[in-house]
Write a structure and sequence with these properties.
Helix 2 (about 10-25) runs antiparallel to helix 3 and helix 3 runs antiparallel to helix 4. By secondary structure, this protein is an all-alpha fold. It has a single domain, classed as Serine Threonine Protein Phosphatase 5, Tetratricopeptide repeat, CATH 1.25.40.10. Helix content is about 75%, strand content about 0%. It is globular and about 35 Å long.
C-alpha cells in the first residue's frame, strides 16, 4: 500500500482498493477500505454496495439490508443494490 503514502486518495480510490481485497478473498481488509471510503463520502453508492456484499459473505444480513435500503434511497435506479 505504498500508494497510500504517495498521494491523497479519495472515496472511490478506497472503494477500488476494497474490491481488490475482496477479489483476493481478504474480506476483513475489504471492509476496512469500504469503511474508509464511507468516512470520506458517506453516500458513496459503490462503497455502500460493496460493503453490503461483503457483509452478506459474513452472514450479517440485517446489517446489509439496512445499507441496501440506504443505497436505494440515494439512487433508486442503482441495480446492484437490488440484485445483491
Amino acid at each position: 500500500m505504498m500508494l497510500l503514502l504517495l498521494t491523497k486518495l479519495d472515496s472511490n480510490d478506497f472503494v477500488n482498493a476494497g474490491v481488490l481485497y475482496s477479489k483476493s478473498q481478504e474480506h476483513d481488509k475489504a471492509l476496512e477500505f469500504h469503511n474508509k471510503s464511507l468516512e470520506l463520502y458517506r453516500d458513496n453508492k459503490y462503497a455502500l454496495n460493496n460493503k453490503e456484499f461483503t457483509l452478506n459473505l459474513f452472514n450479517k444480513f440485517e446489517d446489509a439490508i439496512l445499507l441496501f435500503n440506504k443505497t436505494i434511497e440515494i439512487e433508486s435506479l442503482f441495480a446492484h443494490a437490488y440484485t445483491n
